[in-house]
Design a protein that fits this description.
The chain is built from two helices and five strands; from the N terminus they run βββαββα. The chain is an alpha/beta fold.
Length: 111
């Protein structure tokens, strides 16, 4: 598992679920054009992993304060079985998801 310099995990996901969070928090979502190096793959679908060039790694993700998740959102339909490249008309849109709780809420949002 790869971590950032603050010992927080930076994930690559193919979906985001509210089950990945607990307690009171604010979820910040922003569009990004590129992905950083050293992501921990949590891509649970083999064809998606193949197209993204990362290992399939079906793990349960539980985000903690400061963890970051990059979500590769497939647009255009469902990947055909055995896909290794994006079919024509398909693309990935990348979202950066950051979880804010506790002190981070006070520092970043004033409460």
């Amino acid at each position: 598992m790869t971590t950032t310099e603050n010992n927080k995990v930076v994930y690559l996901l193919n979906a985001f679920s509210l089950q990945m969070i607990s307690g009171h928090c604010i979820i910040e979502v922003e569009d990004v054009d590129t992905l950083p190096e050293g992501l921990t793959s949590a891509i649970g679908h083999q064809d998606t992993a193949n197209v993204l060039g990362v290992p399939m790694n079906r793990i349960n993700v539980s985000l903690k304060e400061g963890d970051v998740a990059y979500v590769a959102q497939l647009v255009g339909g469902r990947l055909p079985e055995g896909a290794t490249t994006l079919p024509e008309g398909f693309k990935f849109v990348f979202k950066k998801v950051t979880l804010h709780t506790g002190e981070s809420l006070k520092a970043n949002f004033g409460f």
